[in-house]
Amino acid sequence: MLKNAYLYVIDRILPSRISYRLALSYSLILCLFIIVVARSVIQVQQVSQRSQEFARNDLQQLLQVQNLALDIEGSTSALVLIFNTTQDKRKPAYDAIDAKKKHIDQLIQKLSKESEDEIQTICLQRLAVTHQEFRQSYLNLFDEIELDNTDGAKDVFETQVAPARQAFLTESGILLDLAKKHIQQRQEEEQNDLARLKLQVISISILAVLTGIALAFFTQRSVVRPLNQLEQSARQIAEGNYASKVPATRATEVARVGQALNTMGDAIAAREAEIEQLAYFDPLSGLPNRILLLKEFEQQSVQGHAMILMDVARLKIVNETLGFGTGDTIIVETSQRLKAALQSLPTSRTFLAKFSGGQFALSCALDEQQNMAEFVEQVVHAINLQLTTPIICGNHSVDVNLVFGIALATAATKDLPSLIRNAEVALYVAKESTQLSAWYSDAQEASRLSHLSLLSDLRAAVQNDELQMWLQPKIRFNDHSCYGFEALVRWQHPQRGFISPAEFIPFAERTGYINHVTDWMLKQALQTLASWQHAYPQLSIAVNVSTKDLRDQSFPERVHQLLQQYQVKPENLQLELTESGIMENPGNAIPLLQSLRNIGIGLSIDDFGTGHSSLAYLQKLPVTELKIDRSFVINIDQQASTQRLVKTIIEMGHGLNLHVIAEGIETEAERDTLISLGCDSMQGYFASKPLHGAGLQNWLIHLADSIG
């Protein structure tokens, strides 16, 4: 209580600004030292002044007293000379004695005037009296000597001069002792003054030090303590405790810094909350994201859990057709319906999260006695039930379906990332098989691992020329001659055996490695054409080009360089492009095709009729050949409607000055029907299967006999 009161009083007495407090502290200390210095200077000046007075007065007075004593002794010595000298020589002795007497009188008179001591004054008075008595006695002695009365002179000397002289010397000694005592007293006084000065300086210095200590203590209490509080608050902020506030203080600067720290803590807390929201939550739906889902299960076991990954079907088409704003609306509404579906289910531990794009994740956990598979079925049913009502997006009504990938945790499932990965595998399987849902199985894992190694194997096959180029002939109907071949890639894996192009070509397209396969096929085709230049100069080879090749603006230059490298005529090379690949981005594809056509390369539209090209684009394409898809050729002899459609395609192609070829012909009836419809050429098993190596050479030799 007293301590708090003391601190309160001190805090109120001292100024509020630290700069003022420090200035006051330093000023007080400076004043104390100035006092010490000033006091020391004054005392030194006083001591110096007294020393000068001592040297000027007291010492001179002592010298005068000593001179007086010497003169007295000198005068008595002169008396002795009178007894032993002749009369003619007494005159100088008398003069010397008179001079001494006069000088003694002057000294006594001078000392009497300068003396301020009463005892000394009395002593001087007695000295003057004894001096007069002494003078009178030796004058009487002089009278007896001048009368040559030796006995009378001796009697006067013994009875008058000697006692007077002794009294005179005694008073002179007393005066000299008084002068010495006075000098000694003055020295003692000076020493006392110096001791007092030393004591005063020490006292003031101690006072200054104590004052400095007191001021330092007050400063520590009123300044350092708030600064320590600031430091503690800053550490609290650094540790993430933003609720800790700096207490108020009267120190203006500290108060400002404290307010700044409090403001900074609030701002950091707000920004950290915003960052945490952005880091752990999806900004569109407000649902937790993948990072937060993984963080929640970081220290938890996933045993007894199920993971359901859901992907909004056709979201990409909605974004491209109706805009990304509509797609965002669908995601937000879907998240709301997912929440509603979970609320309608019995009590369970679920965690709904939003992944990238239109993908959602749902973690489910049940008690051991419940069946997880049945619960997952209930969840999927409840979600689909919520999505039966179309989502209204402005003026559009959009039906939304979710594709489900489901994975149950097993003893082999180590953690949540493994469970999510399994659900992703199941979701991929559902998409590939165009199913609404798929459950994860070990077979899917094996297939996924197989695909993971397939890319490295395909890369090695391309680099080591392990792929094979097979050629399927193209036959003209008018003269049954072969004018070219379509190049087909085949892969005979050393361990896996034959791998169908339907398996590794789409995989290469998804992984972006299809460009390398295309380059390999181009090199093989051009090498073959280079070897045919003398034996079969009229034959051409068509190489299939992927959609990714049409996106590469450097593709025409690469083809041109290969033609120059193998010295092959451009007209002997043909490139087949899918209709859908061209129409994916016609604005970029058409200029690229024009560059290829300018080189002299023939261009063919493969699988025509299965895409969504328009006549407006078709007439702009710099192609030379139209290939009718096999789906229109199968049993065409038995389907009149298909015949009319194919006839229209053929007439349209001829109208655009294009060569029309049908692929996939397997029967004579199909061939004859296409001939009657005006088709130009055919390709298929009826003419020949794809050929390779010796089989290709034998077919070329017996070409005329093999076509009826």
What is the domain tally? 3
Number of helices: 23
Based on the structure given, which CATH architecture of the largest domain is correct?
Alpha-Beta Barrel
Terminal Cα span: 122 Å
Folded structure, characterized:
This protein is α/β, with parallel strands linked by helices and 708 residues long. The protein has 3 domains: 11-228, no CATH class; 290-440, Alpha-Beta Plaits (2-Layer Sandwich); 462-703, Alpha-Beta Barrel (TIM Barrel). The chain has helices at residues 2-13, 18-83, 90-114, 118-146, 150-238, 252-280, 290-296, 315-322, 324-343, 372-386, 416-432, 442-463, 501-511, 514-531, 547-551, 555-566, 579-584, 586-599, 615-618, 640-655, 668-677, 694-701, 703-706, and strands at residues 305-312, 349-354, 359-365, 391-393, 396-398, 402-408, 437-439, 467-476, 482-493, 497-499, 540-545, 573-578, 602-608, 625-628, 659-663, 681-683. The strands form 3 sheets. It has an 8-stranded mixed β-barrel, surrounded by 5 helices.
What's the structural blueprint in terms of helices and strands?
Blueprint: H1 2-13, H2 18-83, H3 90-114, H4 118-146, H5 150-238, H6 252-280, H7 290-296, E1 305-312, H8 315-322, H9 324-343, E2 349-354, E3 359-365, H10 372-386, E4 391-393, E5 396-398, E6 402-408, H11 416-432, E7 437-439, H12 442-463, E8 467-476, E9 482-493, E10 497-499, H13 501-511, H14 514-531, E11 540-545, H15 547-551, H16 555-566, E12 573-578, H17 579-584, H18 586-599, E13 602-608, H19 615-618, E14 625-628, H20 640-655, E15 659-663, H21 668-677, E16 681-683, H22 694-701, H23 703-706
Parallel strand pairs: 6-7, 9-11, 11-12, 12-13, 13-14, 14-15, 15-16
Antiparallel strand pairs: 1-3, 1-6, 2-3, 4-5, 8-9, 8-16, 9-10
Helix pairs in contact: 2-3, 2-5, 3-4, 4-5, 5-6, 8-9, 9-10, 12-13, 14-16, 16-18
